[in-house]
């Protein structure tokens, strides 16, 4: 039977509640080799946050500024770019192409092409293996799963409980990635990944007065400290005003209104800080963390509290529900709020569901993959700022907190031949965290232009627990940035010999 949108049926083997990237993967892996039938239930756009409001549009906005800045630092090209600025209209048009004009027809076609049905509407759990869907026409239909339900309802921007904040209609991550006009004055609240990336593209797009307010003393608090310092230096050089150690106590807005995603939400905004000072802007961007979309998905119908993250085991099954029929992937399980990690969790869940449906048990051979604890040890991430920040595994601080006996080594990436060829004023640093007991890498951080492509090698070393004597024989190409691996290992060897 060919897959359809809103088919006239009520039972499938697997129901996926939420059709973002992770949910799509869960449905695909549960069905592709097993003969199971699956349906995706989605009220918004199939493909979810990453495809339309986060990863993809943000990278489309960041890339032009990166290319322009790189060209300005290469002799033979820089002279052609003197006085040149970004073509903002063309940048926004390219962003619209990347998000397919907020049209999910290609995602729908993909799902149908691999045999996965799609039901449009807002779904809620309605008891064991049941999902009630509110349709656009105002009706309700109840779907039943023979084997499993997978929750992939994602997360949304956390709105702080600050006087006047909600009433002021601040921009969320959806607004800032889908902006239709560039405000002259912007305040960004937050110092994490979303805040830093947004500041990185807003300034070259033409924001004249850009302030970033954050409560911690440094940016990117979950990364190695030098990463946040280097990003802060570049933002300051670009004219961004950084206000560390500050919090917002009140927000006021003239004529607040809902004008749609990416458009001005009213008159000017006044932001009062805890030191009594005020900032006046055209838009306030919230980058204050994420809240899982679990408050209104019917969790109480299966004995779970509504709201909060869903604790899962290493097969992605929800711990609070017996029977191995309810799974959670992506942001809702809180393990790693990253699209690629959500998709990894979905592959685990999908194959576990297929294995259980086949013979009622799961083992390494049956599922085809180990438990997700292995992949989460790598936990790769790239923050696409200037400079980029790429990491895998644990920071030194996290490793020591976990009780590991670690040694660290750092290297200036500007000292590499490969980075010197990229640009003479290359700005970057690398660090390895080594577990002395096993002589393996447990964490790696790279900061610099183009370091995103170094992260996978670090992830491989960490997940595979490759001993350092073996890594010594993994020869990097010359002249590339990957030669930093050799320099780090040389520095680590030299330090070991020095201390005996």
Automatic annotation (TrEMBL):
The keyword Flavoprotein applies. The keyword Flavoprotein applies. Pfam families: Pyr_redox_2 (PF07992), Pyr_redox_dim (PF02852). Residues 13-341 form the FAD/NAD(P)-binding domain. Its cofactor is FAD. InterPro entries: Class-I_Pyr_Nuc-Dis_Oxidored, FAD/NAD-bd_sf, FAD/NAD-binding_dom, FAD/NAD-linked_Rdtase_dimer_sf, Pyr_nuc-diS_OxRdtase, Pyr_nucl-diS_OxRdtase_dimer. Residues 380-485 form the Pyridine nucleotide-disulphide oxidoreductase dimerisation domain. It comes from the Bacteria. Keywords: FAD, Flavoprotein, NAD. Belongs to the class-I pyridine nucleotide-disulfide oxidoreductase family. PANTHER family: DIHYDROLIPOYL DEHYDROGENASE, MITOCHONDRIAL, DISULFIDE OXIDOREDUCTASE. This is NAD(P)/FAD-dependent oxidoreductase. It comes from Streptomyces mirabilis.
